[in-house]
Every structure is written in structure tokens, then in C-alpha cells.
Amino acid sequence: QVQLVESGGGLVQPGGSLRLSCAASGSIFSFNMGWYRQAPGKERELVATISSGSSTLYADSVKGRFTISRDTPKNTVYLQMNSLKPEDTAVYYCNAYYSALRKYWGQGTQVTVSS
Question: For the segment 103-114, what is each residue's pLDDT rounded down to a tens digit?
């Protein structure tokens, strides 16, 4: 069992930056890690993923603005978000995936982009 705790969300003006962190209670060495988001009235969507080998994938909507990274010894994953837009407003969730039977979600952190 792996518990994930997100932090770093908040209110930011358009064009601003935030850095989200996801701290895991156990080793994430073998896990593919990801950030997802869910806006009100919408389905949860993938934002970015990083494999156990540090290969990354981004949603088209965040390419060039967001960067996912991982610090495996610290069991932590980050999402650096720059040039934020109002449409980035959502609850952001951290995900750890090893297999269909070993996948975990955090509780989410709210990101609000508004002037």
C-alpha cells in the first residue's frame, strides 16, 4: 500500500507559476507516476506522466508550460506549472501506477487561476 499526499496548490493569477509536490509513503522506484486534474463538471484528465525510467508524457494543453519530475530517493514527484491559465483551474491528483492491482491516488490539491 502506498499513500500519496499532494501539496502546493493554491490561488494564482494568470501567467503565474505553482509547483505541486506529491510525497509517497513508500518507495516509488518501480512505479510510473502521473498528475491528473479534474475541473468542475468535467472528467478527470491526464496532465503528465513520468515512467520509472523517467520518460515523460504531457497533455497537449500543457506542453511547454508544465514539467513533471521525480526524486526517487525522496519518494516525491513534482509538477512545475508555468504560464498558468484560467482553464488550468482544477483539482490536481497524483497517481502511482505499477499494475492494475497496484495503483494509488492522492486526495487532490486545488489549483485556482484567477485575477
Answer: 999 999 999 999
